[in-house]
Write a structure and sequence with these properties.
The structure is a single chain. With 215 residues, the chain is α/β, with parallel strands linked by helices. It is built from 9 helices and 8 strands. It has a 6-stranded parallel sheet, sandwiched between helices. The protein has a two-stranded parallel ribbon with strand order 1-2.
């Protein structure tokens, strides 16, 4: 059995669905993103970014509530990339009710070329998930040099190491405060950019392929 994270491996073992010495952890790699040049960059740059299917597990209502409490929201937008999944329409309606001034924009699913440009120009990535098996948007954002403020959950701790800011999944004040720190503190912003790129460089599909062949 191969799992993408130690977090998923632990879940399997807790449920007695696998034998410990028969489970190998092989992380995913970042997508091969096209070069982030050319094309149109959102006119509202700079902006914050969230990436992932709109569904309850992503905890987007919490993230939106936190974003609207930030000082950053007064001068920039939060862009949400991802198609509407299970209960996605309901979640989008709830957020729009919270956000009468239109500080949060839903872009839906976008081509890889557009996603690469969005990562390249984002000020911060927010990931407020209640649970993740891996956390690919965080890996992609770190690789693009985007500082990340993410949920303090097992898979994201494992993925980002010391290269992100971790917050309680339900603490909107802490989430808002952390985002404002990243946006306003140039030294912290630069430190996270550098640490994120180094952390992301440890992951690749080539390594994943080699480890899979070894299994």
């Amino acid at each position: 059995v191969i799992t993408v994270s130690g977090h998923v491996r632990n879940l399997l073992l807790e449920r007695r669905l696998a034998i410990p010495d028969r489970v190998s952890v092989i992380p995913e790699g970042p997508a091969t993103m096209p070069e982030a040049v050319g094309g149109s960059v959102p006119s509202a740059a700079p902006y914050a970014l969230m990436v992932g299917t709109v569904q309850p597990r992503k905890n987007y209502v919490h993230a939106a509530t936190a974003w609207l409490q930030t000082r950053a929201a007064s001068e920039r937008l939060l862009l949400v990339v991802g198609e509407a999944g299970y209960r996605g329409g309901e979640i989008i309606r709830r957020i729009r009710m919270l956000d009468p001034n239109g500080r949060i924009r839903f872009l839906g699913r976008v081509p890889d070329s557009a996603l690469a440009r969005l990562y390249a120009h984002a000020t911060v990535l927010m990931q407020s998930s209640l649970d993740e098996g891996f956390g690919l948007p965080v890996l992609e954002a770190m690789g693009a040099g985007v500082p990340c403020v993410v949920s303090d959950i097992g898979s994201l701790r494992e993925l980002a190491g010391g290269a992100a800011i971790f917050v309680n999944t339900q603490d909107t004040e802490a989430f808002a405060s952390s985002v404002d720190q990243v946006v306003s503190n140039g030294q912290l912003h630069g430190k996270l950019r550098e640490a994120g790129r180094k952390q992301a460089a440890q992951y690749s599909w080539s390594r994943a392929a080699q480890d899979t062949l070894a299994v």
